[in-house]
Design a protein that fits this description.
By secondary structure, this protein is mostly helical. The chain has six helices and no strands. It has one domain. Helix 2 packs antiparallel against helix 4. Keywords: Membrane, Transmembrane, Transmembrane helix.
């Protein structure tokens, strides 16, 4: 954990954190506005596996992949997945540092709260493992193995849960920081 603290302390300058945040969200916006809609053109309204926070089963994957057709599956594999192989790294790194930045402002970086910075890293790792499972299923279609679907689904759910926990933690930290700022007593010079 000491290495994580050192890494965070070394990389939490406001400019670096803001730059990573902007880059992360540009990639996310690109996925939401370009690669996901392009892939979903072939899905007849069925959501992609990346967009199923509560998970899916073999029947759902089979229905989605059938609906996508050969062109849609290829689009998923060659358009959406490559961008989604960049995003998890950016998400994990960016949001780890953002949380570290605000914890430092609260003087809580060297406390057990540092473990909160691991949550977006877990989400990023789960996203990579989800992507690897989706790639395997797309490449092996129509031979879908229930174990591959089940395992990929677990990583999708872990990604969703850890992302939700992270954003709740970030909101709590931001509210705490806001309260701290509002409760500061005005200095004698301002009276």
């Amino acid at each position: 954990m000491k290495r994580l603290i050192k890494f965070i302390e070394k990389n939490i300058s406001g400019k670096k954190v803001l730059g990573l945040f902007i880059l992360t969200n540009l990639v996310y916006t690109f996925m939401l506005t370009v690669t996901i809609p392009k892939t979903m053109e072939f899905s007849n309204g069925i959501k992609l596996l990346d967009m199923m926070p509560t998970g899916y089963d073999l029947n759902y994957v089979s229905e989605l992949f059938t609906s996508l057709g050969e062109t849609g599956r290829l689009t998923y594999l060659t358009n959406q997945i490559p961008v989604d192989m960049i995003y998890p790294l950016l998400f994990g790194l960016s949001y780890c540092l953002i949380l570290g930045y605000f914890l430092k402002k609260l003087n809580k970086l060297n406390s057990p709260y540092i473990y909160l910075c691991v949550i977006p890293i877990i989400a990023g790792i789960a996203d990579y493992l989800e992507n690897i499972g989706i790639i395997a299923m797309l490449k092996n279609y129509p031979e879908l193995k229930e174990t591959t679907v089940y395992t990929t689904n677990i990583f999708s759910v872990i990604k969703s849960i850890s992302t939700s926990i992270f954003f709740i933690a970030l909101i709590v930290v931001l509210i705490t920081l806001g309260i701290k700022v509002l409760n500061r007593k005005p200095s004698a010079n301002t009276l």
